[in-house]
Amino acid sequence: QVQLQESGPGLVKPSQTLSLTCTVSDGSITTNYYYWSWIRQPPGKGLECIGYIAFTGRTYYSPSLKSRTSISRDTSKNQFTLQLSSVTPEDTAVYYCVGLDPIYDVDYWGQGTQVTVSS
């Protein structure tokens, strides 16, 4: 079973760039048809899709975050990375990396990592 693990700083200062890495094991980020996503959940709110990088390397970003978001990958390390620039306290959330298999309609979630934006 595919496993995902988020890593990165838990505290980021306002105006800085939030950077998180997701390490994938027991599966490859280049596996056909898979999508590798970043999703977040602010306190007291629902889940929000930030964007994804497909098995081809194609990316998609949520329109509301597109101007501040970059998702990239390192196939040699089987990792994909989120960068969110110019953060504010409103970016405080639990951030999840998620692998999506659209063929079998299965998703695999990391455990999530709390990121707090505060000075």
Low-confidence stretches: none
Percent helix range? under 10%
Ends: how far apart? Answer: 39 Å
Beta-strand fraction estimate? over 45%
What does this structure look like?
The chain has 119 residues and is mainly beta. 0% of the residues lie in helices and 52% in strands. Strands 2, 4, 5, 6, 9, 10 and 11 form a 7-stranded mixed beta sheet that branches. Strands 1-3-8-7 form a 4-stranded antiparallel beta sheet, with no helix packed on it. The chain is globular and about 40 Å long. The protein starts with a strand and ends with a strand.
Task: Please describe the structure with a list of short key phrases separated by commas or semicolons.
seven-stranded mixed β-sheet; single chain; mainly beta; 119 residues; globular; four-stranded antiparallel β-sheet
What's the short version?
It is built from no helices and 11 strands. It is mostly beta strands and 119 residues long.
